Amino acid sequence: MGAEEELDNLLNSGAKSGAADSGDEFAEYGGFKDDKPQESKPVSEGDHLAQVQSAKMVDASEGQRNYGAIRILEIQWRIIDGDDKKRVIYERISLKHQDAEAVQRARGIMGEIRLALGLNEIPNAGSLVDKQCVIKVKHSVPKKHGDPVYANIRGHKAIPEGTVVPGKIDIDGANVPF
Q1: Is residue 117 part of a domain?
Q2: In the predicted model, what is the mean pLDDT of residues 16-25?
Q3: Whole-angstrom Cα distance, residue 56 to residue 58?
Q4: In this predicted structure, what is the pLDDT of residue 134?
Q5: 14 near 106, Cβ under 8 Å?
Q6: Which domain holds residue 17?
Q7: What is the number of structural domains in the chain?
Q8: Terminus-to-terminus CA distance in the chain, angstroms?
Q9: What is the reported pLDDT for 9?
C-alpha cells in the first residue's frame, strides 16, 4: 500500500464506520491528552466555535512512541468567537498506533470531525484547513499540586443552524478572513 493510499485509509476509516453519533451530544474520549498547554491559562472549558488553522500528519515523537503511537494527525484549532477568541488549541490524534483499541478510538474521532465539518470524506489532512465547527473543551485534572492544567478537546459537532459565524478576525492589526 502506497503512502497516499495509507493516509486515505487512516483519515477516512472512521468516516465510514465506528464514527460517533452525529446528534447534539458530544462523544467523550477518556484518557487522551491531545493538547499542548496554553499560555498562562488554558482555553476555558465548554463549547467553542473554532476553525482549523492547520492540519498535518507527523511521525510520533520519542515520548509518544513509548506509549505506542506511530503516526499522528496534528490539528491546530483557532477559537473564532467568545472570550477565548484568537486563542489556539492543539489536538493530536494517533491514527497509527500499536494498540488496536487506540486506533478504533481515533477512527471514531475522525468520523466525528468529518460529520462536524460537513465533509463526505477527508482526502488529506490539508482538506480540514479553514473548516469550522463547535469543539468541546475540558480541562485535565492535575496529578499532583503544581502540575499544569491542560485544555483537551473532547468533542466536535456541527455549527447549529442560525449561528452567526464571524467573517473576519483581527489578528495583530491585520484583517484575516475566517
Answers
A1: yes
A2: 35
A3: 6
A4: 97
A5: yes
A6: 3-165
A7: 1
A8: 37
A9: 60
